Amino acid sequence: MEMKLLQQIHSPEDLRSLNNQQLEELTEEIRETIVDTVSRNGGHLASNLGAVELTLAMHLEFQSPKDSFVWDVGHQVYTHKLLTGRYEQFHTLRQNGGLSGFPNPEESDHDTFAAGHSGASIAAGYGLSVAKGLEGDPSYTIAVIGDGSFTGGLVYEALNNAGHENTKLIVVLNDNEMSISPNVGSLAMYLAGIRTNPAYYGFKEEVRNTLQKLPVVGDAAVHAIVQIKKELKDRLYSSNMFEDMGFNYMGPIDGHDLRALRYAFQSCKFIDGPVLLHVMTQKGKGYLFAEKEPSRFHGIGSFNKVTGESPKSGTNFSAEFGKALCTFAEQDEHIVAITAAMSLGTGLKEFSERFPDRFFDVGIAEEFAVTFAGGMAKGGLIPVFAVYSTFLQRAYDEIVHDVAMQDQKVVLAVDRAGFVGDDGRSHQGIFDLAFLRTIPNSVIYSPSTYKGVGQFLYRALYDDGKVIAVRYPRGQQGYIPDDFNQNTYDDYTVLDGEEYYTGTKLESRKPDACLVTFGSLFPEAAKARDELKEEGYRVRIIKLNKVWPINPGAVEAALDCSRVFFYEEGAKSGGIGESYGYQLLQDNFEGDYRYIAVDNTFVHHAKQDALRAEFGIDAASMVRDVKGGDHESE
After folding, report:
1. DSSP-based three-state secondary structure for 238
2. Number of neighbouring beta carbons within 10 Å of residue 604
3. What is the pLDDT of residue 319?
């Protein structure tokens, strides 16, 4: 499609000169641009296609950035970015140095809050609206939240507080009947009841027809809107949960009807106090493949936009975890699996089909998932909670209080551990090691191979311990050297070949350097070792399999090295390398110890390989370190 209108939109103000026909054409251009860009760069497709008209209506009826848009999760902001002066940069979406796939205040004043995790927009929006009120700022705050986020408790805490405060807060409930996996639980059924109430469908045309006849200003309009709202409430929603919590409820309305959305937002402005506008949208709207498979097109890599097909990528760590768990569950009926709306992403689809009575999708509620697992453990089960590292952060208190302190064992299958890549700051899995190892009696495994995932998951299922994590990276297995024994269940592995060549055979000697690492960085260390070997260096690798607590033997294996380098794809403060260095000192190590990790920063979006190079933890950086080169992360 030739872009005619979108290229002319440099700010939301440019929208106001467009007529209704042009606005309809603009929605088509936006969808075409999103599909084209995501098909090349990957990203969140279905959620963005479903929010086009909603976002356009918001920018037409409010004045961003004066009026503040607060997006929940933020994976539906592509239209928002296109309408706020970022069309020319949109092709760089999720690329190194390009636009973020989420709201980012560093990119634009129109991005009020950074986002990436669900359930936070109402609380943040409420806080902002209170601040505006105290400062005498008459502008609006619009918090957009999906129905999938309503499985999280923070949403209700925010609604409970915000509903009784007279602020200019408008909460937009974007109801598409989906989170990442299909919605579950009583709230989903409650919303379905509102959507399918026959009284609504008999009354909605009457409301729309009346609204369309109203002027947008004036006492008559105010009076008429209030009467319509009162009649709607009395006839249909007298027991509406949102009204009971103090919100003025409007809806549900068609989220793809631009005129209806504009009228609804105009009506919101005439209502005193907080408003909840319930909007019905379709994930993947306008792109047939995403409409049919919204879960697959929620977060997707590059794909063929003509056929909707993704490149064949083979297996990955998540899939191998799922296979291993099914194998063990077949032999032990005490094993149960829990996910927080991520059954596909965490590799649990097969488990959910084979063992439906032992599979629990709790929705986007990580805190609940952990405490729920603690109760299961108390009852004699072996719960396995499969969760991305970034989302596990949300359940730290429950891990401490409801599992470890209760002396219960829960297995945490920590997916996407380390650099995640294109999703950026909110999704990088760099903090789990630092916070898990502070918990008494915790155990952490970090395999580097597909086979290792099954081996150390088995150990986790039947080891002693209170919190046992098996963490593994996003994507596929890296380089594994021939001299690595993949059949080991040991806490650590030492690779220390003694024959090195530079044309003539060298005598056995002490290592020139020792590389200590684990997980996703073991392949990097192995590649560095092989390259250095060709240049006559003798390099020992100490691979930690059980990274916490550290086996004393893994420290002793480095004591005869004059230089020890510890590489970690995680936060430096509180990381495993910090403890390893301390234990070296306790053992009277007299050599040089250098710890290279992510030092006091959030990690931006870029490919995993690019990030490893940037932070000095890839094979090339390791080679430079051993040969005496400096790197920026020191």
Report:
1. coil
2. 15
3. 95
Any idea which residue has 């009583």 for tokens?
A: 186
pLDDT tens track for 564-608: 999 999 999 999 999 999 999 999 999 999 999 999 999 898 899
The whole-number pLDDT of residue 178 equals 54
**CA geometry: angle at 361 spanning 359 and 365, to 5°?**
140
pLDDT digits (tens, 9 = 90+) for 298-337: 888 899 999 999 888 789 999 999 999 999 999 999 999 9
Residue 357, C-beta contacts closer than 8 angstroms, at least 6 positions apart: none
The count of other CB atoms within 10 Å of the CB of residue 632 is: 8
3-class DSSP assignment, residue 519: helix
pLDDT in the model for residue 412: 98
Q: How far is it, in rounded angstroms, from Cα 558 to Cα 579? A: 14
Say how many CA atoms lie within 13 Å of 226 toward its Cβ: 9
Task: Tell me how far the alpha carbon of residue 116 is from its chain's centroid.
Answer: 6
Amino acid present at 295? S
pLDDT tens readout for residues 399-424:
999 999 999 999 999 999 999 988 88
Our CA angle for 363, 365, 369, nearest 5°, is 95
Residue 468's CB is within 10 A of a number of other CB atoms, namely 25
pLDDT attached to residue 625: 96
Hunting for tokens 């002693």 — which residue is that?
A: 464
Catalytic residue ranges: 283, 366, 394
Peptide bond into 103 cis (omega under 30): no
Is this prediction's pTM over 0.85?
A: no
Tokens representing 310? 């993704």
Could you say which residues of the chain have pLDDT below 70?
1-3, 178-239, 497-509, 629-634
Rounded distance between C-alpha atoms, residue 146 and residue 76, angstroms? 10
SS3 of 437-458 = CCCCCEEEECCCCHHHHHHHHH
Question: Quick check: 217 and 225 in contact, CB under 8 A?
Answer: no
* φ, ψ at 354 (rounded to 5°): -85, -30
- What's the one-letter identity of residue 360? F
Closest CA to 361 of 189, 175, 180: 180
Distance in angstroms (rounded) separating the CA atoms of residues 363 and 50: 20
Q: Which amino acid type is present at position 341?
A: A
pLDDT computed for residue 198 by the predictor: 44
Helix axes 52-61, 20-41, angle to 10 degrees: 130
Q: How many CA atoms lie within 13 A of 627 on its CB side?
A: 16
* Cβ neighbours for 504, distance < 8 A, ≥ 6 positions apart: none
User: What is the structure's pLDDT at 560?
Assistant: 93
CA dihedral in degrees (59, 64, 68, 69; nearest 10)? 40
- The DSSP output letter for 401 is I
Three-class SS of residue 136? coil
The DSSP secondary-structure symbol of 106 reads T
